[in-house]
Amino acid sequence: MIIKIIIVLLLGFVLFNLFRALFLMVSGKAGDKSMSYFLGRRVLFSAIVLAFILVAAKLGLIHFNPNPHHVKERTQTQTNIATPHQQNASTKLLLGTRNVVCC
User: Fold this and answer.
1) Residue 58 parent element (H or E)
2) Could you give the CA distance from residue 84 to residue 37 in angstroms, rounded to a whole number?
3) pLDDT score of 37
4) For 54, which DSSP code?
5) Dihedral, CA atoms, 8, 59, 72, 74, nearest 10 degrees?
């Protein structure tokens, strides 16, 4: 659980840096740090998140979802468990009593 919290916090920090760069781009203010500084931090932390996920998966701390193509195909066989019974006149629909829906 702690691994997932760390990943979410790192991704939140990536988004924070992305929006800081957006704010600097839109406002046009030349501050202490340029827009490329925050975009560079975003790329750096994205790489750290990716490396962290791969290392955690390799160590067995997190597990990926299984690939659906590696699951064995299952064949479904239908068994007829109904016993045949004789129909009487009340179970068959008569031609005159069928419902017809028209335009």
Assistant:
1) helix 35-58
2) 78
3) 86
4) H
5) -50
